[in-house]
Amino acid sequence: MSLWRRERVEGGGDLAFLGFEGAPSDTAVFPWREERHASTLDEPVPTTTVVAVRPWGTEVGLLVARVVLGVTAVFGGARTLFDLPRGHGDGTAHTQALLTGYGFRPVAELATALGWVQLVTGLLVAVGVFASFAGSALLAVALVALVVTLPAAWASGTVGPAELPLFAVALAAVVVLAGPGRISGDADRPWYRAQTAVGLTAAVIAVGSALTVLLAMRS
To answer: pLDDT per residue over 161-183, tens digit each?
Structure first.
């Protein structure tokens, strides 16, 4: 099944081919020459505007991925910063103990930074505002978690220790690279129409941030 659906608008209407002006959100617009028409110097060739639109099932899938990632990050940040919800034993002290065990320094400052990153960027991802760049921060966190849990997974011969970070990396990468979709606060924004460039830039930022944390803040 194709990812795109083609919608033809005879005569081109008011759509502009190069700038996407007037095109529906998240579309690719290009001229389509009908084969049955002959081309001569005196006779213009009729064209049809083809608008490629992602099906709504894809948009709902992007919404689900974005909301799951964002809400999970928000709850993680709330636990790290405020021990909420209480009574689960995985709040600030637990986060600092994990960071200490994996060799990160300084622990208190990193735990606070991690909590706020999860809380703020998780909220932005959930509502779909600056989603790719906000998601890049969560992708960086997931990459760091994956790297530090890989030795335990390798030693045990199972994927268990790295399972959750691996799923987090995959989910964050979908949001970063594919974008927030049409059901989001980013829909119809200027940067929304340049998702390939935005997604790749955000992915590079995520990898660079993860490497910086691993190399500069881990003993």
So the answer is: 899 999 999 999 999 999 998 89
- Let me know: does 103 contact 47? Beta carbons within 8 Å: no
pLDDT tens, residue by residue, 146-163:
999 999 888 888 888 899
Reported as half-sphere exposure (CB side, CA atoms, 13 A), residue 74 has a value of 12
**pTM for the full predicted model:** 0.76
CA-based radius of gyration for the chain: 23
**Closest among 18, 66, 56, 20 to 190, alpha carbons compared:** 20
Q: How confident is the model at residue 55 (pLDDT cuts 50, 70, 90)?
A: confident
Q: Is 81 left (phi over 0), alpha (psi -120 to 50) or beta?
A: alpha
Contact 81, 116 (CB under 8 A): yes
Per-position DSSP letters for 8-67, written without gaps between them: EEET-TT--TTT-TTPPSSEEEEEEE-TTS---SSSPPPEEEEEEE--HHHHHHHHHHHH
Rounded to whole angstroms, how far apart are CA atoms 26 and 55? 11
Lookup: tokens for 200: 């790749």
Alpha helical stretches, state H, the chain: 56-82, 92-101, 107-127, 131-156, 160-178, 195-216
